[in-house]
Amino acid sequence: MASNSYPHPILAREGWPFILLALVLAVGAHASVGWAWAWPLDVVLVFVVQFFRDPARTIPDLPNAVLSPADGRIVKIEKTFDPFAQRDAILVSVFMNVFNVHSNRSGVNGVVRSVNYFPGLFVNADLDKASTENERNAVVIDAQIAGAQHTVTLVQVAGLIARRILCYVQAGHVLQKGERYGFIRFGSRVDVYLPLSAQVLVAPGDKVSATLTPLATLG
Q1: Are strands 58-59 and 103-105 parallel, antiparallel or unpaired?
Q2: Choosing from 131, 188, 197, 209, which is the catalytic residue?
Q3: Cys-Cys crosslink for 113: which of 60, 80, 140, 183, Cβ 3.0 to 4.6 Å?
């Protein structure tokens, strides 16, 4: 088992300003009006801290697997067209609610071929139309799996509450399995487009964890 190196464990750096603001408001409320009136801000603080938790993940030793890029629940598996890599593909969609960890991690080793951002709507990310109508960011990866090259596309999709997609890689970046490449604030989904030869290991309704859960294998 290999351990993923991440310089900001436990709490995501994207959340530090929000956590600090919630903490200041809660402490200020306790000092000025007392616990009886300040407890709602305590609840907000707890929610913000849990939302931005970002624990380190152990990378399973599965060389032919595509690992989940996000925590959440499988909401769709279907054969479709990958508009970002222009090919037929298998789509596996992972929906993240506000109680999931929202760091996005690469499920494969490979080189980023392209990164493309598309503005759009903010409908519920649990709906099918979110994949084509919502704000989204697509990362196309030339992945090295089991000694062969395969194309894997990871698409960050904003949701009803999520209003900020963060992506930290560009074309040419060399990704490692489990590497943290992005973050989506407050509820969203990640669509994974796999080659048609992929053997999918999950089913709709399954709960998955970023890096820990294999979504599919490629021979």
Answers
A1: unpaired
A2: 188
A3: 140
